[in-house]
Write a structure and sequence with these properties.
alpha+beta, globular, 6-stranded mixed beta sheet, Nuclear Transport Factor 2, Chain: A
C-alpha cells in the first residue's frame, strides 16, 4: 500500500511539474509573439507614420535589407540593398507626400515560425511583401534581415 501511494504521489508530482513547465513555455511564447509583432509593427509604422526613431527599438544596426522593384525602364526587376542608416533616412521622408495612408494601408503580420531566439515573419504592406528575420538581442526582438518585393502594377 505504501509503495502504491508513493508511486501515485510521484506520478502526480511529475504531472504537475510538467504542466507548470508547459504553462511557462506557453506564456513565454505569447510574450515572444507580442514582441515579434511589435518589432514588425514599429518597422512598418516608421515608414507609414514618418517616425524613423521607431527603428531604433526594433531594427538591428547590422540590418541587411534586399529588395526587388520594377526597373524604371521596364526591363524587369531591379535589385536594391539597404543598410540600417539608409532605412532610417528613407523612413524620415518616404511618406511625406502621403504615398501610403497610415490609417488604411496594410500592416498584416504573419509569424511563420519562431524559437526562443529567432523568428521568421511575413509582412504584407502597401509597398509589397517583406520576409523578415528577427533575433532576440538583450531580451528584445530585433529585425536583422529583410527581403522584399514590390507588387507589380
Amino acid at each position: 500500500m505504501m509503495k502504491t501511494t508513493s508511486r501515485a504521489l510521484l506520478i502526480v508530482s511529475a504531472m504537475a511539474m510538467t504542466m507548470a513547465v508547459a504553462g511557462f513555455a506557453i506564456a513565454g511564447s505569447d510574450a515572444d509573439e507580442k514582441g515579434i509583432e511589435q518589432a514588425v509593427q514599429n518597422y512598418v509604422s516608421s515608414i507609414y507614420d514618418l517616425k524613423p526613431e521607431l527603428l531604433d527599438k526594433s531594427v538591428s544596426t547590422k540590418l541587411q535589407k534586399l529588395g526587388y522593384m520594377p526597373a524604371k525602364d521596364g526591363s524587369g526587376l531591379k535589385e536594391s540593398w539597404m543598410t540600417f542608416d539608409e532605412l532610417k533616412d528613407l523612413a524620415s521622408h518616404l511618406n511625406k507626400d502621403g504615398m501610403f495612408d497610415p490609417q488604411t494601408s496594410s500592416r498584416k503580420v504573419t509569424i511563420l515560425d519562431h524559437t526562443d531566439m529567432i523568428a521568421n515573419v511575413k509582412l504584407e504592406a502597401a509597398w509589397g511583401i517583406d520576409y523578415i528575420h528577427l533575433t532576440k538581442i538583450s531580451g528584445n526582438w530585433m529585425i536583422i534581415n529583410v527581403i522584399w518585393e514590390m507588387e507589380s502594377h
